[in-house]
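ARCHIVE CARD
CATEGORY: sequence design from structure
SOURCE FIELD: tokenized fold
FIELD CONTENT:
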């Protein structure tokens, strides 16, 4: 059913803090790649970035889920995301025999962005510095790699047309790539079990929702911190043509495969409009 279809899988940096979770997740990615799904892996690296910033005496500042990125921090961002995290994932791909190629949003004009001007967030003016907003995704380079059966491993570091490097949230980049490739699925693997009705109650997981449901959660204040850029990314991906967005935990051992190959799944599935789906479609993973 999914052979030849595009899945964009975004893995949060948190997974790489634990070797067993990392292997577990990458083994599932390997299976999806090996059965003929065109997998694009987009990675984060927020916790690693925070750690290296602190070791260099830079106090990390994150506002509404996005990192304020000054001149020194954009250098750290490209060192950590393009260097450390991307290369570590490629090493695991070697071990698991996945033919993978590392790229970033800078490569071959993949992500064209501009520096975000100071914006009002939660009532105050915030200058995010070298943080980018996406103008265009040119996914040609990814199509070429996928046509050669190579798995792209994408770091979200991007640039403007002058070559100024910009930091973009990995969920945002994954959503843009999903929309550009009209992906069958965007899978966001995060530390949370899925989208929760109440962030303090891990049992309040929402199994199935749509854009109206997501808006309701936002309006009632259920979405906070890192879930804010994730919710925006989910909305943009679906409006851009991605059929299904899944939010799953990297902590449960078979979360990706269960989400794809069982009706129940383990996390949250978001579609454009639940009532527009046929009963059969509502059943499908
Ligand atoms: N309604 C919610 N459901 C789930 N997580 C939420 C919600 N609201 C806020 N969060 C927080 O958002 C976090 C996910 O964001 P973040 O840690 O930035 O993600 P990642 O690094 O995986 O991209 C969760 O671990 C949780 O603390
Ligand atoms: C602008 C912005 O916030 N960029 C993110 C990029 C990394 C990321 O998104 O990593 P996770 O998926 O692990 O959170 C950051 O600096 O943390």
């Amino acid at each position: 059913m999914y052979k030849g279809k595009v899945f964009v899988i975004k893995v949060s940096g948190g997974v790489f803090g634990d070797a067993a979770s990392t292997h577990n997740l990458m083994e599932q990615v390997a299976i999806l790649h090996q059965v003929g799904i065109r997998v694009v892996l987009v990675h984060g690296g927020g916790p690693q970035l925070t750690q290296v910033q602190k070791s260099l005496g830079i106090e990390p500042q994150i506002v509404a889920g996005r990192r304020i990125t000054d001149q020194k921090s954009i250098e750290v961002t490209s060192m950590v995301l393009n260097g450390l995290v991307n290369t570590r994932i490629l090493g695991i791909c070697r071990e698991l025999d996945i033919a993978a190629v590392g790229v970033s949003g800078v490569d071959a004009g993949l992500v064209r962005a501009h520096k975000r001007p100071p914006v009002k967030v939660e009532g105050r003016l915030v200058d995010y510095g070298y943080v980018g907003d996406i103008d265009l995704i040119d996914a040609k380079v990814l199509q070429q790699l996928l046509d050669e059966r190579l798995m792209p491993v994408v770091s979200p570091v991007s640039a403007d047309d002058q070559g100024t490097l910009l930091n973009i949230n990995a969920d945002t980049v994954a959503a843009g790539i999903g929309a550009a490739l009209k992906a069958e699925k965007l899978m966001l693997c995060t530390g949370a079990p899925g989208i929760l009705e109440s962030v303090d109650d891990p049992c309040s997981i929402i199994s199935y929702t749509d854009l109206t449901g997501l808006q309701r959660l936002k309006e009632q204040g259920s979405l906070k911190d890192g879930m804010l850029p994730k919710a925006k990314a989910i909305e943009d991906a679906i409006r851009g043509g991605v059929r299904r967005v899944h939010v799953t935990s990297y902590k449960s051992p078979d979360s990706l495969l269960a989400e794809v190959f069982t009706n129940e799944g383990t996390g949250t599935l978001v579609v454009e409009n639940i009532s527009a789906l046929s009963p059969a479609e509502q059943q499908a993973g």
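CARD ANNOTATION: DSSP finds nine helices and 16 strands in the chain. The domain at 6-283 is CATH 3.40.1160.10 (Carbamate kinase).
SHELF: design records, drawer C
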